[in-house]
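During the second half of the funding period, the structural biology subgroup turned its attention to how the target accommodates small molecules. The most pressing case was magnesium ion, which had performed well in the primary screen but for which no bound structure existed. We therefore specified the complex as follows and requested a full 3D prediction, including the ligand pose.
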Amino acid sequence: MTDEGLVITGISKSFGGVRVLRDVSLRARPGAVTALIGPNGAGKTTLANIVSGFERPDAGRIDVSGHDLTRRGPDRRATAGLARTFQNLEIFTGLTVIDNVVMGAYGRGGAGLLSAVVGLPRARRADRRARAAAEELLDRFGLTALADAPVESLPFGQAKLVELARVLALEPRVVVLDEPVAGLPAESVRAVGEQVTRMAGAGAAVLLIEHNMRLVMEISDHIAVLDHGELLMEGEPAEVRADPRVIEAYLGPDADRIAPRRES
Amino acid sequence: MAVSRIRRWRPTTPVITAVLLAAMPLIFISDFARAIQLRFCVMLLLLTGLNFINGYARMSSLAQAGFYGLGAYTAGILAARLDVPPALAFVAAPVLATVAALVIGAASLRLRATYFTMATLGAGYILYILFGRMTGVTGGPNGLLGIPALSVAGIEISGPLPMYVLAAVLALLGVVVAYNFERSRAGRALRALGASEPAAVASGVRAFRLRLFAFALSGCYAGVAGALETFDATFVSPSSFGFLTAVLCVVGLTVGGAGRAAGPLIGAALLTALDELGTEYAGYEMLIVGLVFLVVVQAFPGGVAGAAGARWPRRGARPAVARATEGSAS
Ligand SMILES: Nc1ncnc2c1ncn2[C@@H]1O[C@H](COP(=O)(O)OP(=O)(O)OP(=O)(O)O)[C@@H](O)[C@H]1O
Ligand SMILES: [Mg+2]
């Protein structure tokens, strides 16, 4: 069976009578970065919430690797190999950097509640394995020196990297990233970009929501444009950049030079 | 850099607790001191239990006094009225308190934080009213009398010192279990859930189940505390399990340091001291509580344990932070 990656089919969603998404269908293939772009309020985050199970669609379905996850809660979707980050930084304050990353692997299973309380050897072994994997990820993100620091002591850019490392700890098949580089300095943008490319290289299906067009054009294999809750078009980066509808709705006439800015 | 390699051993909370619980009865030996020491163990159990839900999960339960009372009355009624062997009555107390926590938690833990607090306040108050009003079963406001001495396998545990030893062993066990839990996968998940529910759930944490587990643990600990209280005092009256106790538990834990292993220990010490102050300066103790609470919450959001942790950070923490800020500056 070939892995289908993430398949979004006919998703519609209204909030109190306001249509936010209208019959959106989209695919994110394994091993590729699929970008989802569009103006503020287009419905990108809403779609990410529906994909990850935080919001229920009015119609449509979500499949991951051939499994229909539409009726599953967000926690069960993590177990099925779907990981996500959030537009607003969501980290585990009060935990160390390494524990933040170890937490990312929670959905992959481990010792049960009771054996944890009693401190059974099996629970300890499973814990050591998760820690070793997290150490490897920290190394990859250049965060090894910070492993035992409280995560809230990190500057924003590094906290964002921790969030990304946490997502990878799940060894996900599908990754949804909601604006991973918003507010980051240039060198962090590059670091995040490299890691996203690497995720896809390792076989994950990456759905990247992002306003930074330079990054999107550089690392995406496929781009979909959402406008007012509808899919405006999709295609390869060059096609999207040249499409008059996209230029009008989102990019503006200076698409080649200027990345659209968003107020935050 | 080399300095951070040296792992200076620091006493953990279970070790400090063990030393404290072992030293106290050797240093202060009067019956009066014994009563205070036992009170400390009971408080330690109550706050260590409450720390699961109010500390690690960062929810605010006001039901701890209700579970405490339920434990006390379960043990008392079974032993005094139904002639259940005292040891069995003792064990039944945490079992029933756990079941009550599961039921109340199942009904309230899907609510948002503030509503959960209101629900636990209501549940705790209903229990308190039942203790006072079900006169036929509980003895009502006059209290429940005729509680027999506790005996395990034919050995009677009565009198100040044996009761204290039992209380100390149970309190230490409670602290060790909580300490293991905090460091375990489930404990980490509970703390993560308290810090960011979306990120925890997106990592696969079953939020409701885990919170229910934490709440049940808090009920269980309160049940043990109640049973100890009953067999020590050989008398149960509703007045110990009302709103004031519920609030004092929350205040004690918050001032001690909610969500930190040492928090319940510090909080229990403060509440026990307050108890003694209260008998000397009756009427003014709540004023003291209010003032201390205000000052600590303003000045040290992490409680006393949090402030101490910032002053003496865990190994590795400080150099790492220094490196982090250097990194961002360059
Ligand atoms: N829970 C909600 N209730 C009501 N309206 C909502 C809700 N969530 C989102 N919306 C509305 O849905 C629309 C789409 O919002 P969404 O956050 O999905 O946009 P977005 O494409 O992610 O925008 P941005 O680029 O600014 O992040 C907006 O008009 C927003 O106000
Ligand atoms: Mg958004």
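Two results from this model are relevant to the next phase. Chain B has one domain: 11-329. The longest helix of chain B spans residues 207-233.
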